[in-house]
Design a protein that fits this description.
Layout (H helix, E strand, L loop, with lengths): L3 E6 L12 H13 L2 E6 L2 E2 L7 H15 L4 E4 L2 E3 L2 H9 L11 E5 L9 H10 L3 E5 L5 H4 L17 E2 L2 H4 L8 H19 L2
Parallel strand pairs: 1-2, 2-4, 3-5, 5-6, 6-7, 7-8
């Protein structure tokens, strides 16, 4: 039997656009555990609107852990919005934004532009021991239009690890968006599969 791990969850209260109270955060944990999720990675935003203070946020994860007990297991990561300032900070302090106990960095790209030098930036992260994982690429309007063939700066989701949302490959939680997400997710999965089985 495989463990079910939610690696991208806005579970911490009062830090971003996640739950507005600790009661709601605790209930989210209880529901997740009842659904069979054994481990949740808290991923508060790191962007211009929400400051990411690793030490402070680790304290909040500890607090929530005390409230919910051992199930589900909780650890800290980040919803890392790709920007010049964030990139420089991640290069200077490689472990600041990664999923706790790993070298994986969850990267959210802008809906309005994908830098042409993205491959170079991700390679620089890898050189300091960080593996970038593009989060929900199927929701990104630019990546939705990405051709299936080729692997270049214009098609980063085809070159780097990616994390798809459950709602994009399972019965939809967001019916108004699900059709385009599912279609895009299927294209990304086919492209990744073709590249890993050549």
């Amino acid at each position: 039997m495989f463990a079910v791990i939610d690696i991208h969850c806005h579970i911490l209260a009062e830090v971003d656009d996640g739950p507005k109270s600790w009661d709601v955060a605790q209930e989210m944990c209880r529901i997740a555990a009842a659904d069979g999720i054994e481990h949740i990675v808290a991923t508060p935003h790191a962007n211009e609107r929400y400051h990411y203070d690793r030490h402070y946020l680790a304290g909040l994860v500890h607090y929530l852990r005390q409230q919910v007990g051992s199930a589900p297991k909780l650890s800290l990561g980040c919803d890392f919005h790709f920007s010049y300032d964030n990139l420089q900070d991640a290069l200077d302090a490689p472990g600041r934004y990664t999923i706790e106990g790993s070298n994986y960095l969850l990267v959210e790209l802008s809906n309005y532009s994908v830098p042409v030098q993205l491959d170079e930036c991700f390679t620089r992260l890898r050189e300091v021991g960080v593996t970038a994982v593009i989060t929900h690429p199927e929701r990104n309007p630019i990546l939705q239009r990405t051709p299936e063939n080729g692997c270049s700066s214009a098609t980063p989701s085809m070159c780097w690890p990616a994390m798809l949302m459950t709602a994009s490959i399972a019965p939809p939680y967001f019916p108004q968006d699900a059709p385009s997400w599912r279609s895009s997710a299927a294209r990304i999965l086919r492209a990744h599969w073709s590249k890993t089985t050549r």
